[in-house]
Amino acid sequence: MAGFEILDPTVEPRRQPLTYVPRPDSLKGKRIGLVENTKFNSDKLLQRIGIILKTEYGAAEARMWRKHNSSVPAHQEIIDDAKQTVDVVVAGIGD
Amino acid sequence: MTARISSQRYAVEGFQEALDLCYSRGWTDGLPVVPPTEPAVRAMLDAVGLEPDAQVAFITNRQVAISAEKVAINAVMAGCRPEYMPVVVAAIEGIADPRWGYHGPATSTGSAAVLTIVNGPIARRLDFNSGDNLFAPGWRANATVGRAVRLVMRNVVGTIPGRLDRGTFGHPGRYTYVMAENEAESPWTPLHVERIGCRPTDSAVTVMAALAPIQFYNQLSSTAAGVLGTLCDTMRYPGQIGQPNYCVVLAGEHMRTIAADGWSKADIRKFIFENTTNTVAHFKRTARMPGAVKPEDETATRPLVQSPDDILVVAAGGRAGSFSCFIPGWASRTSSEAVTVVIKERSA
């Protein structure tokens, strides 16, 4: 068989710059947001994390949001609310 | 069609080198693929009248555009004939629909595959199997269309086992999971006509995030309620509350028994919906719901799906044998739902 060319079936992921907010040096006095993904006990796990962040790391408060379901990103209302009301967000998923 | 195909090209000495390259790059599902040469890819594009850079679908969570060119390349690799391309394109449109919710079924430990049901004249014209050995090897259309969809998921969207695909078990339907409805012998309204109001002369695909088929046996009943009673008993116990869809596939003998009693698909759905409820106590005892069993849980019931319309009834499978099957959907109604898409055929 003579030589021939084949075509690449894949795509290069589109590159886009992502800028992360710098991590705070300390959680002291920070407001914590917890994003719960609806799986059993994920609320309990995050509540416990919130307590630890307050009692052991000095966070000021912790509040929780619940996503529509575990397979989608946090919906826009959560993101908008979190921007206004918290300094740090913890999101969790567990299987 | 002369628009440029922009995909990177690799020169190879022959078939074996092409195959080795595809394996070494991780482009296959484990089985050998057909080397995607430009003439073969052009034939795929011509079959749907799409330019190479036409966007077939966009997967939002991955921010990936699926171009006609990439669908065509993967369809060649899967072994499709060009005539299958409109079916592949429609299925890709379906899994990119926000209602199907690509990220969940593609990624989840729950291991859904893309159950693809073909309806309308195209199914018969392209020889999609709707009969004996419904899910078995041997039919090129069934084998390669589902494989093409999976290769697009792998190669274009990045749904690669162990990386973005974290299925605990996966299942064999992830190689291909395609059937046609047996419209020629079915006494009922075809699925695409029921679901989105197609004309029977339209062709369509329905994609459902689906687990493996589960077969049941009833050789004793001569009534619709008798046959479906066995189905419901089989469906009820492995069921989980909140699943989005079930597909019920009724094969020849059961189809004829149920139809002889004058039952429509709506009657079948209603019967199944009403006879597959479980008590909350059962769900709690079997750890499908949290919490201790309370006295009122013994009488409180939950259905398997939210509505009878969430049960897809399809006439398909062998003419002989007292078997039918059901196929559980994946996850929950808010995560994924079956989507039906009209197949756009290029006018001659």
Report what the structure shows.
The complex is a heterodimer of chains A (95) and B (348). By secondary structure, chain A is α/β, with parallel strands linked by helices. Chain A has a domain at 31-92. In chain A, 25% of the residues lie in helices and 21% in strands. Chain A is built from two helices and four strands; from the N terminus they run ββαβαβ. Chain A has helices spanning 42-55, 76-85, and strands spanning 4-7, 31-36, 61-66, 88-91. Chain A starts with a strand and ends with a strand. The mean pLDDT of chain A is 89. The relative contact order of chain B is 0.15. Chain B has two domains: 13-210 and 334-348, no CATH class; 212-328, no CATH class. Chain B has 348 residues and is of the alpha+beta class. The longest helix of chain B has 16 residues, at 140-155. Chain B has helices spanning 15-24, 38-48, 68-78, 85-96, 103-107, 121-125, 140-155, 191-196, 224-236, 252-260, 265-274, 280-285, and strands at 9-12, 55-59, 64-67, 113-119, 178-180, 204-210, 214-217, 246-250, 278-279, 301-302, 311-315, 323-328, 339-342. At the A-B interface, strand 1 of A face strand 1, helix 1, strand 3, helix 3 and helix 5 of B. Strand 1 (4-7) of chain A pairs antiparallel with strand 1 of chain B.
